């Protein structure tokens, strides 16, 4: 055989296999998405997301304490209000007594070393379930949407969050949030992680169940990106980097590895995050339960594919497992 045919000599040992990896998975690469509800004592399993629960603020110490002990370094919070009055502008999003603001304060007090991010969106808090404010005809009204989303982000910053992560996909919101943070004195204190290339995916179903954020009518296709739109995704990544995003995110992850790779090329001087979303997590669990593969092996294979594509940060419901496995 020709010399140039032989590759296997380079990866015949576990250690030499590990040297074939340019970047390896570490605990600090994982950010754990958690759902906070407004019953302070809640600990309610989410049927479509194996092992995940809706938590009340009074349960956060017993829930996260052991994970922080195992090396958990960051979380991202999603609010799931049940007892509030939702309206057209998503007023409960930054209610000072609402679950997200209470959880930010609680986590900062409980775990000084934990990096606390908050998703910023209106869909959990609007009566229509869309991510922005609407015109009378049901289309997005961009300018007031962006203004309201920036206001919510600044109020999370005032509560002490380390990072705000807008997932709404309104045009111009990154610039408005960055401006708002700077003007309120948080320019050098709060990270802006933009869901930049967020696609209109069928993989958000379990999340919408968990968060009660399905739209009351229509869909999100006029603001989330069409799944086949590589060019739009590349433009959104470059726009958000230019508007002041500190971290660029791609979402979902597994069907969009090429976009993660594009982000790493286009915004190579930024950290690149990807979100292994609820449907990806449920899919991996379902496949394992059906005997298609071993759960842990597949969890590693998917997370490693994201790092290989260029991700430096992975938002994943597998975070507690990876803290055990790594
Ligand atoms: C809300 C939001 C969604 C997710 C994160 N923020 C759902 C959506 O856009 O419909 C999805 C997360 C997941 O599926 O795990 N804007
Ligand atoms: Zn939303």
From TrEMBL:
Zn(2+) binds at residues 121, 123, 131. Gene3D superfamilies: Aldolase class I. One of its GO terms (molecular function) is zinc ion binding. The lineage of its organism: Eukaryota, Fungi, Dikarya, Basidiomycota, Agaricomycotina. Belongs to the ALAD family. This is Delta-aminolevulinic acid dehydratase. Homooctamer. Keywords: Heme biosynthesis, Lyase, Metal-binding, Porphyrin biosynthesis, Zinc. Pfam families: ALAD. Pathway: Porphyrin-containing compound metabolism; protoporphyrin-IX biosynthesis; coproporphyrinogen-III from 5-aminolevulinate: step 1/4. 5-aminolevulinate 2 binds at residues 278, 317. GO terms for biological process: protoporphyrinogen IX biosynthetic process. Its cofactor is Zn(2+). Catalyzes an early step in the biosynthesis of tetrapyrroles. Binds two molecules of 5-aminolevulinate per subunit, each at a distinct site, and catalyzes their condensation to form porphobilinogen. It catalyses: 2 5-aminolevulinate = porphobilinogen + 2 H2O + H(+). Its EC number is 4.2.1.24. SMART domains: ALAD. It comes from Amanita muscaria (strain Koide BX008). 5-aminolevulinate 1 binds at residues 208, 220. The active site is at residues 198, 251. GO terms for cellular component: cytosol.
């Amino acid at each position: 055989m020709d010399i140039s045919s032989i590759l296997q000599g380079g990866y015949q040992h576990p250690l030499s296999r590990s040297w074939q990896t340019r970047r390896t998975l570490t605990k600090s690469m994982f950010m754990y998405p958690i759902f906070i509800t407004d019953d302070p004592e809640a600990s309610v399993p989410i049927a479509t997301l194996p092992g995940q629960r809706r938590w009340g603020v009074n349960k956060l110490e017993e829930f996260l304490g052991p994970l922080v002990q195992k090396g958990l370094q960051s979380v991202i919070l999603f609010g799931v209000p049940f007892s509030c009055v939702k309206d057209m502008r998503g007023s409960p999003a930054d209610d000072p007594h609402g679950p997200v603001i209470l959880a930010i304060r609680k986590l900062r007090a409980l775990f000084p070393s934990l990096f606390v991010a908050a998703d910023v969106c209106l869909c959990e808090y609007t009566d229509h379930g869309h991510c922005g404010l609407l015109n009378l005809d049901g289309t997005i009204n961009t300018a007031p949407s962006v203004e309201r989303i920036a206001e919510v982000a600044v109020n999370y910053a005032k509560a002490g969050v380390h990072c705000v992560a807008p997932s709404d996909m309104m045009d111009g919101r990154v610039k408005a949030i960055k401006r708002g943070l700077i003007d309120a004195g948080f320019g050098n204190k709060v990270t802006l992680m933009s869901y930049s290339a967020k696609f209109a995916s069928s993989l958000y179903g379990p999340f919408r169940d968990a968060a009660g954020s399905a739209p009351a009518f229509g869909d999100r296709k006029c603001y989330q990106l069409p799944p086949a739109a590589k060019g739009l995704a590349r433009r959104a990544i470059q726009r958000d980097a230019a508007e002041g995003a500190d971290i660029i995110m791609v979402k979902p992850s597994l069907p969009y590895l090429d976009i993660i790779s594009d982000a790493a090329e286009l915004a190579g001087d930024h950290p690149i995050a990807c979100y292994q979303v609820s449907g990806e997590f449920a899919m991996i669990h379902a496949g394992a339960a059906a005997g298609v593969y071993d759960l842990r092996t597949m969890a590693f294979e998917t997370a490693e594919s994201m790092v290989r594509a260029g991700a430096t940060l992975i938002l994943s419901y597998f975070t507690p497992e990876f803290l055990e496995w790594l």
